[in-house]
């Protein structure tokens, strides 16, 4: 871009802090005055100039007229042009704010829209500052990845049309260009299909446990309105119609397309459910094709997402129609049957000129020819897809699941997300078309969505747009603080950047040394010991006895996140040596091998960093003291949350030894808690024996094994979660 026509000079402060950060930008001295301007647009930009008017209106600037023009640029004006010759990059724009005029030029309509949102972010009123002097700038910008998405799950919790439109605004504002609209689920079918009215008459409504009815759906008229609204803002809506799994709501309406014939109710629990579409019944495919016909008519998107994830094969294994299909088609196993299912749907979608996307399970048993893979179980699915020349969208649970707590995915983690898998062959990288953040809504009714999506979406937008080679989180963090003023003006109820507080404990000479770490630097931390006086934390503090510690954080005089309550236990196992541990889950290490004897017991959140989780294996540990001790009880805590596949142990056993060779069984206990007991809770188990002398204590807790038959994930391995093994 030629900057020579700028009647401004380079300013000292280059920072203009647009998020996502533009590829090239220059801040210049002098100002354009927004009190008086016209809008000029060439004929390709006339439609888009209405978006500029709308956005300016939101900031209380009015321009009554949009004037069609070809050239040259007028004074006291904002000028919009589309010119494909300015760049080879799709979605490219340049923006010049000069003392006399503003020019936004896009290489295509999407580029022009991005330029408009950069301009809007620069206007002082967008940060709530009522000043019409707009600093002169020059920006050249284009995205690194063409797919920059957000999944909204409007099934687990329904989201209103206005809310969805608001999210389209927020996506466009941050130059994200895909709304992945999750429209069908076990817990609700949310899109009107004229040929199958029961999908919404029955499938859109579920009976909650308290007897109330919950649900909703979008009419075709509403969907058309949203699709058009999104198009005007450069956002493509990709509908997701889940198959063959996550389909209980549809089967509740049309049980004839299941293996068993039903009947079913729309699910009210969260999880993975074994009733799925029957793969042996041709009429199931006719039904799905008819549904897809109406979806394809409604959504102009080139891509249709068909789910494909988490389809248990239990029903197929026991269905005569499915078995016959396997025989007739010479299919080797259930994965191949799923592949047959997806392939058949892919053929249909292709025949309509559309492209299929599916979650990475569609790789299993053979990938359909032209399918795009959305990798969620790590990066492996993306890697496998691109190696065979398929496109991939990357949205792993490690970085992109915005329904997860900050314990698992905080702002820094998202900022460090690299959608290109390690080991991706360089000639295949082009097949990584981008990434998505996934806003699943099991635990997120509409009014909580902002606090989960923001500020994490800011990091995702910058990674996918700018793909910064050097990621300085501290600099980004500062820019996010400034950007909050824009989010305040937009009415976004953003959440936290990080888990506020981490507590760690060292035990030495009969005392606990407790250290609190701030999640972000601007926090003040406070604590109370046994609900006594409030203390402002300044450095490691010492406690000599068992205690209840409550800590909380404050940022800018406002509390930052929930308080943290930790039980601290003094017992004989503190600081003892741990050996013979089985392998615990990487993400649930509890802080390492010593987690079970560090004095801190995990709380009600099993992801709080204190619980240690074992997947499909037993918990077993040998605790060795410095010298022989007299002991008479072992108290251990275990967790249950059956919907996350975490169950109480079947049995807990304690052995002791003096010499480390000969162990004696001292106590055994079978927890009397039903694995069906719902919710998230933990329980303390006391095993007593009389006055034993021991140097070694071995504790075993037997994993429940596999999720039971009644469970949505029947047959899958189960988790066992343990914390603090207290010895007295
Ligand atoms: C998924 O999270 N089941 C795609
Ligand atoms: Zn079947």
Notes on the protein architecture:
The model is unreliable at 1-8 and 10-14 (pLDDT under 50). This protein has 4 domains: 4-141, 2-Layer Sandwich (Chitobiase, domain 2), CATH 3.30.379.10; 147-489, Glycosidases (TIM Barrel, Alpha-Beta Barrel); 499-568, Immunoglobulin-like, CATH 2.60.40; 573-728, Jelly Rolls. The protein is built from 15 helices and 35 strands. Strands 8-9-14-15-16-17-18-19 form an 8-stranded parallel β-barrel, surrounded by 7 helices. The chain has a 7-stranded mixed beta sheet with strand order 1-7-5-6-4-2-3, covered by helices on one side. A hairpin with a 5-residue loop joins strand 22 (523-529) and strand 23. By secondary structure, the protein is an alpha/beta fold. Acetamide binds at residues 309-310, 359, 376.
